[in-house]
Specification:
single chain; alpha/beta; UDP-N-acetylmuramoyl-L-alanine:D-glutamate ligase; 9 helices; 11 strands; 24% strand; binds 3-hydroxy-5-(hydroxymethyl)-2-methylisonicotinaldehyde
């Protein structure tokens, strides 16, 4: 039986349907044993709520790693998302180096920005630390805004294939092996994802839905990682994650006042169907 164990490191936003509260159920639905390491605990996510609480768990990390090492605990894959602090990023690298197997895959979603802007609380030092983490990724999963921050390129709302090619080359220049670049749109009414594997470009285009939701980056990355750890190719995983994310957006569009996240749970049967 193909039963793998993954570790995911990202925050717990207690309410808001993002990060760990999205990654854990999606990876579990993919049939993967999922170890979790919360990077921080927030009362809600930071996009649209005010006065949220934030407890940084950076200083818990070395002790957790020490215990895992004593127990000989290893993971078949490691997947990082929103991290709590710049210092934490170096601990995360330590955890990766000391819990991986020779075949383990490292997935990095540099969850720090969208729509041309960094999320609240992040700065240039954090971006620089994220560049170092991204360099180690087998699969880096940024949106265009994050890709621009990681490569010091100008963020553009309108662009062409040459702009995307330069972004991909610069991201590879950081040292990561493969890139899954989300939210790439070359035509009105259409968007898609670029799969850049060992320097080879492929593109999965799909309909651009009229509504967008917070947290879809986390849904996309979790489904992509889940499909890959299940043994799908990167292109098939990119497609499965895109189709599932679109279904989540469609479900959310039917709800009133669901502004803070995407209703990914009712769409889980669709994910299971796509994984068959
Ligand atoms: O969805 C990314 C994300 C994760 N975690 C927290 C966030 C955000 C985006 O705003 O605020 C705490």
């Amino acid at each position: 039986m193909n039963y793998k164990r993954i570790l995911t490191i990202q925050d717990i936003s207690c309410v808001g349907q993002c990060s760990l509260t999205v990654a854990l159920p999606i990876l579990s639905a993919c049939g993967i044993e999922t170890g979790v390491l919360p990077s921080a605990v927030l009362s809600t996510h930071t996009a649209g709520f005010s006065d949220f609480t934030f407890r940084d768990l950076t200083e818990d990390m070395p002790g957790i790693l020490e215990h895992w090492n004593k127990e000989g605990i290893q993971f078949d894959a490691l997947y990082t998302g929103y991290l709590g602090s710049q210092k934490q990023i170096s601990y995360v690298l330590d955890i990766y180096e000391n819990t991986k197997k020779s075949t383990s895959l490292f997935f990095v979603d540099p969850a720090m920005a969208d729509n041309g802007k960094l999320y609240p609380g992040f700065d240039t030092d954090y971006v620089n630390a994220m560049k170092a983490l991204s360099a180690k990724a087998d699969y880096l999963i940024p949106n265009i805004t994050e890709a621009c921050f990681l490569t010091d390129m100008e963020y553009r709302m309108e662009y062409d294939r040459a702009y995307i090619d330069t972004l991909l080359e610069k991201l590879s220049g950081l040292g990561c092996k493969n890139v899954i670049l989300t939210g790439v749109s070359y035509q009105e009414g259409e968007t898609g994802v670029v799969v850049y594997e060992k320097g080879n470009y492929s593109y999965y285009a799909h309909q651009m839905l009229p509504n967008s939701c917070h947290g879809t980056g986390d849904i996309y990355a979790s489904a992509f990682v889940g499909a890959m750890v299940r043994g799908k190719t990167a292109f098939d995983s990119a497609k499965i994650a895109a189709e599932y994310t679109m279904e989540c957006i469609r479900v959310t569009a039917q709800l009133d006042n669901h502004w803070y996240g995407a209703a990914f749970e009712p769409a889980i049967p669709k994910l299971l169907e796509l994984l068959k």
